[in-house]
Specification:
The protein has 828 residues and is α/β, with parallel strands linked by helices. It contains 29 helices and 31 strands. Bound molecules: 2-phosphoglycolic acid and zinc ion.
Length: 828
């Protein structure tokens, strides 16, 4: 079809996004044009009639009749005549306007309120139906609006009119209306099938009902009706609709044996065409719902839930509009929805809503809105909210422009609506600046914060640092020198490249680093730039950071949110006194993050009380990660306190215990120094065996041996198969080392610390390998932290098993938990 159905297409297409949006809308409308769908689904091949895959041999029938009703019935009849020509013996159809046919009589009826014209037409239709005999074929056109247009008696017309008026006020659903309609009619709810019996029937169904229930279209004259008079009466009583004479619908299945109900078109036809058109234009296109029956607010929420640049989010259905008392605004459902969408539009987005029959309760088909609409309204001093409140969309669009005009269309599949979000231009993603500054971390040590800017967008990351650092970690350059490297070395290399090319820019950083430990620029510089760029990229795309990471990571499946590894007692290198063991954690065994967080905080409070019973207040200090530090060298004591705290706290979720032994920190000259004793790896394993026996909740253990001793890890893992044996210093987020640990069966869990390896891409690559081998990933903070919350996004976006972020009470640690809680909240 060369000629556009949208008659004011060019007037409206004032921008590229508008033009694209109108092209998508046009494609949707063209795909449902009655002539187009019939020509696509019906084919006459000699004496064989093919209808949407079903085959009918016309030589088997003596006569062929055509009857029909609904908004597109006359056009459909006309098109059928073009295809079948003189094979049609006789026919009668009722639609909205006549259409001159050779053999078929067409009638113009009234809609939505039935009238005498409808009755006269229906009488003729029923006569044709009854004249069909066993050897005849009747093609029935069933289309939206048929409920009102098909009226078998004057009494039914009157009842129909009364019912419709009563229903408008009632708040009942269209399904309920149709259930009653089926029982006040001789022809609906399968009645027509009874009239047609025993002829063969091809019922061509043009659905205007979102969801594809064939029996709902025109109240299902050729479909078996499951509802009963009692059901209809219950609806009448429920809404107090008045008195109606009800009749039972045919329940003898014999009447339906020769009926072929064939769907010809529905709003999915339009949505599929719109999706294809959007894809051709280079957009990602999603059909959000084909059965939308929501309010404008709910619709806006559904459409804007996860908007990605370069995407079209489409829906079909009918927006629910509640007309407030005394409201006298003019306009249709689609205009009103477009007007309401002005509250949710982001800059650049275009929203279109159209009635698929071209008639949005007015002479417009619907409306288009974007930021131009808002500017125009502001320029003209129009109060958008006032127009919204009064449901007065027609005058609004008449004033600012935006009405989509098509005239009455030969299609009717309920409303079509979509939100188009423009693509990002290359310029938006180009790195225009990279800066770094020095700031103190949680230990008061200097670290760097890096900002990567791409035009209007930017991302900032403050780099953490460890105390019990693994020997294989990338190098850290002192903060002041690092700032100079960012300005002199990294910035010139990355300016002008795309922030969206994470792997490309990480490769550049690796090259600049020169060695695997990134000695030339420092791992802290590399990670600062890498994560800042990752954050900027998410902003450029207008999506959450975790979502951007998820896209980079390429997750296919849904997985629960990470478990929280909450550090409550600090020791080792994270404390001045205390035992040699670095961290005693609790792990609420749930993916309900809010519940886990609440439980962890409660256990922490109990623990504090328990410690206060045994130690003086001033002797209980706080370690690097916010956990308590107690003046005791005992290995067992902290486990006992944590176990008692769990036991004595009433939590809604089960709680496990974890520990980071950080064994490298007490490994000296080939032996492990614990409680003043020198232990071999074997003896240390015996100590662990004792701890596991005594504290069965202790099920997650990190770095139980020194970072070189893969064999000891492997022995431990096979001796404690129920324990998650986690590598941290052992693996240092390094893919090659992880591969070695996997080969040696040393671990089944891995700590992921991006600053151990230096770039986002390398971090994700290590995590990919872990997933492939069912090694649990626990994304972790460092003991020297900043308030940056990137690791929460990383843990969620990669669907990690855990997030380890210290005690919930210190600001640097709380930032991570808070971010995760916020992600979960917006994600649901
Ligand atoms: P670190 O400690 O950040 O000091 O290395 C954390 C850990 O060992 O897990
Ligand atoms: Zn560790």
């Amino acid at each position: 079809m060369d000629k556009k159905l949208i008659t004011n297409f060019d007037t409206l297409a004032t921008s590229k996004s508008r033009r694209d949006a109108l092209t998508v809308a046009e494609a949707g409308l063209q795909a449902i044009d009655t002539q187009v769908v019939l020509q696509n689904s019906i084919e006459l091949d000699g004496t064989i009639l093919r209808v949407a895959g079903e085959r009918f041999d016309l030589t088997r029938y003596e006569h062929t009749y055509v009857i029909g009703f609904g908004k597109v019935a006359c056009t459909a009849a006309y098109t059928l005549e073009q295809i079948l020509q003189e094979r049609i013996k006789e026919g009668a159809v009722v639609g909205l306007s006549e259409r001159v046919c050779q053999t078929i009589d067409t009638y113009a009826g009234t809609h939505p309120i039935p009238s005498t014209q409808n009755y006269t037409a229906t009488k003729h239709i029923d006569e044709v139906a009854r004249s069909a005999k066993e050897n005849d074929l009747v093609i029935v056109i069933v289309s939206g609006g048929g409920s009102a247009l098909l009226c078998s008696t004057m009494a039914e017309c009157d009842q129909g009119q009364k019912l419709f008026n009563a229903f408008l006020q009632s708040g009942g659903t269209i399904e309920e209306l149709n259930t009653v309609r089926k029982h006040i009619s001789k022809l609906k709810g399968g009645g027509l099938a009874q009239s047609l019996y025993p002829a063969t029937v091809i019922s061509l169904i043009f659905s205007d009902v979102p969801g594809g229930d064939l029996a709902a279209v025109a109240s299902g004259p050729t479909c078996f009706d499951e509802s009963t008079v009692a059901d209809a009466q219950a609806i009448i009583d429920c809404y107090g609709l008045g008195d109606f004479i009800l009749n039972e619908t045919p329940k003898d299945l014999e009447y339906f044996k020769r009926v072929h109900n064939i769907p010809i078109v529905s709003n999915m036809t339009a949505l599929n065409a719109m999706q294809a058109s959007a894809r051709t234009l280079g957009y990602r296109a999603d059909i959000v719902s084909a059965t939308q029956y929501a309010t404008p607010k709910e619709t806006a929420a559904m459409l804007t839930k996860q908007v990605v640049p370069g995407s079209v989010q489409a829906m079909g259905g009918e927006t629910k509009v509640i007309v407030p008392e005394g409201c006298d605004g003019t306009g249709g459902r689609n205009g009103y929805l477009a007007l309401s969408m002005l509250d949710s539009l982001q800059s650049g987005q275009v929203f279109i809503s159209i009635a698929s029959d071209g008639h949005d309760n007015t002479n417009a088909a619907g409306a288009l809105v974007d930021s131009e609409t808002i500017s125009k309204a502001t320029e003209m001093s129009l109060n958008i909210q006032e127009y919204q409140t009064n449901l007065n969309s027609f005058p609004f669009f008449a004033a600012v422009g935006g009405h989509i005009r098509t005239g009455q269309l030969d299609s009717n599949v309920s409303d079509l609506l979509f939100l188009l979000t423009p693509k990002i231009s290359r310029d938006d993603a180009t790195i225009t600046d990279i800066t770094a500054k020095v700031l103190p971390d949680s230990r008061g040590k200097e670290t760097i914060s890096v900002t990567v800017t791409a035009g209007e967008h930017s991302g900032t990351f403050s780099v953490p640092s460890g105390a019990s650092t693994g020997i294989r970690e990338v190098q850290v350059i002192p903060a002041r020198a690092a700032v100079t490297i960012v300005a002199d070395t990294v910035k010139p290399a990355l300016l002008g490249t795309s922030v969206l090319d994470q792997s490309g820019l990480d490769a550049t950083l690796r090259n600049l680093g020169q060695t695997p430990s990134l000695a030339a620029i420092g791992g802290n510089v590399a990670l600062g730039v890498s994560v800042a760029a990752c954050k900027a990229a998410a902003q450029v795309q207008g999506i959450e950071i975790w979502k951007y990471i998820a896209d980079l990571f390429g997750h296919q499946t849904q997985a629960p949110a990470p478990r929280l590894f909450v550090n409550l007692i600090n020791g080792g290198e994270h404390a001045l006194v205390g035992s040699a063991i670095q961290e005693h954690q609790i792990i609420p065994d749930t993916d309900d993050v809010a519940a886990a967080h609440a439980a962890a905080t409660a256990v922490q409070a109990t623990l504090h009380q328990l410690l206060l019973k045994d130690f003086k207040k001033q002797d209980i200090t706080i370690g690097d990660e916010g956990g308590f530090v107690i003046p005791s060298k005992s290995i067992e004591a902290p486990f006992a306190y944590v176990a008692a705290a769990i036991e004595q706290t009433d939590t809604a979720v089960p709680i496990l215990m974890g520990a980071d032994m950080a064994a490298s920190s007490f490994y000296k000259a080939g032996e492990y120094e614990l409680e003043g004793k020198q232990l071999t790896a074997g003896q240390l394993q015996t100590v662990y065996r004792g701890l596991h026996k005594k504290f069965p909740l202790l099920q997650l253990v990190e770095d139980p041996f020194a970072e070189h001793d893969f064999a000891a890890f492997a022995k431990y893992q096979s001796a404690q198969p129920a324990v998650t044996c986690i590598g941290d210093d052992l693996t240092t987020t390094n893919k090659t080392t992880l591969q070695k640990a996997i080969t040696k069966q040393a671990i089944n869990g891995i700590i992921i610390k991006p600053n151990q390896i230096g770039t986002v891409s390398d971090t994700l690559a290590t995590m990919q390998l872990a997933y492939q081998h069912n090694v649990r990933c626990i994304v972790s903070h460092r003991s020297g932290e900043t308030k940056d919350d990137f690791i929460a996004d990383l843990a969620f976006g990669t669907k990690s098993y855990g997030l380890k972020a210290g005690a919930p009470t210190m600001p640097e640690r709380a930032a991570k938990y808070d971010r995760l809680l916020a992600i979960i909240q917006t994600h649901e």
